[in-house]
Amino acid sequence: MKSPAELTETFRANGLKVTPQRQLLFGLMHGNTVHPTAEALFAEASARMPGISLRTVYQTLTDLASMGELRLIDVGTGATRFDPNTDDHHHVVCSSCGEVRDVYVAGSDRLKVDGLDGFRIEEASILFSGTCVTCASDTVSRASARG
Amino acid sequence: MKSPAELTETFRANGLKVTPQRQLLFGLMHGNTVHPTAEALFAEASARMPGISLRTVYQTLTDLASMGELRLIDVGTGATRFDPNTDDHHHVVCSSCGEVRDVYVAGSDRLKVDGLDGFRIEEASILFSGTCVTCASDTVSRASARG
DNA sequence: TGTTAGTTCGCACTCTTTGCAGATTGACAA
DNA sequence: TTGTCAATCTGCAAAGAGTGCGAACTAACA
């Protein structure tokens, strides 16, 4: 995703207005690596700008996504997550706490794939799931406590 | 997924009852390759057993999934889809009509993956998305019709 | 400073799925 | 065949995640 300053340019160039709400969201998303949900972003935004609406958060996020400035990701935890990293990458999700991290995969061009006949493929996404360190150690702690 | 007869055994062995509703759903899912949603299955079931409730469809599907007899898949089209194919496989979804097909991938063990440090990975799923033949030809037809 | 088109916000509403509780009914024993 | 009891079924309410809409507001530019 571009920097807040660049996005300001881009928005104006596209006939879109740059409002305080949008600037706030540009800032909250820029360099954000936690893959927040709209609700999480709304909480952060509300802390800095009381009164901002969840509707506006969804609106702006959708706009950014349709401009290709951020990616919508669905890791199966219910709510869509937003990722300002537009590099070619994939994700890993902790099935316990839902934490999401970026994953880079090389060599996918050498995979032998069977069953795509008839499809014109536009995208391939790989989602790893497992347990993050924090949740793994929590489990160990609880196990020790139990026995 | 096991055959309806085998599932009957398994259910009884696990202290679960085999009701007409469940038998119907066993039959509808066995060998089913369309990856139906609960709603779609409910429609089929209703045609054969008027009065069956959507709640029961969800219940039974969830039971089968927790017994490992079918997989819950989320291709980002809104509703969860159910897959009786429990082989190690992946999926491709048509971004236009939502059709889902099974895909077999070999060589994934040779991928170079960066970013999984700290995670104990339990699963990796690959989701291809693109346009199916039907939708591709529809697009062509419409384009021709337009001129 | 005025005009106007783009925005914001809140509310109602859709969609998918789950929780609950009373009415039913398999499964097994007598 | 009958009885018992836990498992099930069904309908309805409700939760979570988004989206459509319209009135009030405001950024952008003349």
Structure overview:
The structure is a homodimer of 147-residue chains. With 147 residues, chain A is α+β, with helices and mostly antiparallel strands. Chain A has 2 domains: 4-73, Winged helix-like DNA-binding domain superfamily/Winged helix DNA-binding domain (Arc Repressor Mutant, subunit A, Orthogonal Bundle), CATH 1.10.10.10; 87-146, Ferric-uptake regulator, C-terminal dimerisarion domain (Dna Ligase, domain 1, 2-Layer Sandwich), CATH 3.30.1490. Helices cover 39% and strands 22% of the residues of chain A. The first copy, chain A, is built from 5 helices and 6 strands. A 3-stranded mixed β-sheet of chain A has the order 4-3-6. In chain A, strands 1-2 form a two-stranded antiparallel sheet. The longest helix of chain A is centred in the C-terminal third of the chain and has 14 residues, at 133-146. Chain A is flat and about 50 Å long. The model of chain A has no long low-confidence stretch (mean pLDDT 95). The interface between A and B is large, with 38 and 38 residues. The first copy, chain A, binds a DNA duplex (30 and 30 nucleotides) through residues 12, 15-19, 21-22, 37-39, 51-56, 58-59, 78-80.
Features:
homodimer, 147 residues, alpha+beta, Arc Repressor Mutant, subunit A, Dna Ligase, domain 1, 2 domains, 3-stranded mixed beta sheet, 5 helices, 6 strands, DNA-binding
Shape of chain A: flat
Instruction: Give the number of DSSP strands of chain A.
Output: 6
What's the alpha carbon Rg of chain A, rounded to whole Å? Answer: 19 Å
Largest interface by Cβ-Cβ < 8 Å: A-B, 38 and 38 residues
Extract low-pLDDT stretches of chain A: none
Mean pLDDT of chain A: 95
- Give the strand order, joined by hyphens, for the main sheet of chain A: 4-3-6
Report the sheet with the most strands of chain A, covering strand number, pairing sense and barrel closure: 3 strands, mixed
Helix content of chain A: 25-40%
